[in-house]
Write a structure and sequence with these properties.
Its EC number is 2.5.1.18. A four-stranded mixed beta sheet has the order 2-1-3-4, covered by helices on one side. By secondary structure, the chain is an alpha+beta fold. It contains nine helices and four strands.
């Protein structure tokens, strides 16, 4: 086995996509193992690899890590994307948790019944434009720096960039009233590591389709 982190999940975004984003933004190459059957998942449980019988699973530095938040915190700390002190880390944690709440709505959208999708899009738009994006628009304006915390690229910047692009896939004009976030998006997507991750052929996964949803249900339900 190489020294690269090894990610075990489905061949889709889900809860692993923030991990892919963070590793890619840190310039870290990784390997992936894709679950396609329930038998593969059950074997991981039988082998005692999944502490809480859940994926994502990330093998890194001799550890078999589970729980998305723990994985992301470790990667952020390892690659110096977690602030310079406890106060900066607390800010990053708050921002990341807020963004995660918004991303959860996006995550669940594809599993909602067809007749509920339009209503759910409206809910995402409402939360994004009235609760979450105004916070970051204000932070960037008052902070007066290129990044959310300190004047250094961090996990919070990565997570916000992922969220902006995910929401824009559903609501293309969602940033129309947020000039600070528009400029932020341009800065972040032009950073070399992120720009590379956004290119065709990268490990970034496309929006979930019916096949992905069916695979999730087949393996985990």
């Amino acid at each position: 086995m190489s020294g690269k982190p090894r990610l075990t999940y489905l061949n889709g975004r889900g809860r692993m996509e923030p991990v892919r984003w963070l590793l890619a933004a840190a310039g870290v190459e990784f390997e992936e193992v894709f679950l396609e059957t329930r038998e593969q998942y059950e074997k991981l449980i039988k082998d005692g690899v999944l502490m809480f019988q859940q994926v994502p699973l990330v093998e890194i530095d001799g550890m078999k890590m589970v729980q998305t938040r723990a994985i992301l915190s470790y990667i952020a700390g390892k690659y110096n994307l977690y602030g310079k002190d406890l106060k900066e880390r607390a800010l990053i944690d708050m921002y990341v948790e807020g963004i995660s709440d918004l991303m959860h709505m996006i995550l669940m959208f594809h599993f909602s019944p067809p007749d509920a999708k339009e209503k759910n899009i409206d809910s995402v738009k409402d939360r994004a434009t009235n609760r979450y994006f105004p916070v970051f628009e204000k932070v960037l304006k008052q902070h007066g720096q290129d990044f959310l915390v300190g004047n250094k690229f961090s996990w919070a910047d990565v997570q916000l960039t992922e969220a902006i692009l995910a929401v824009e896939e559903k609501i293309p004009a969602v940033l129309s009233e947020f000039p600070q976030l528009q400029a932020f998006k341009v800065r972040m997507t032009n950073m070399p590591t992120i720009k590379k991750f956004l290119q065709p052929g990268s490990p970034r996964k496309p929006p979930p389709d019916d096949h992905y949803v069916e695979t999730v249900i087949k393996i985990f339900k």
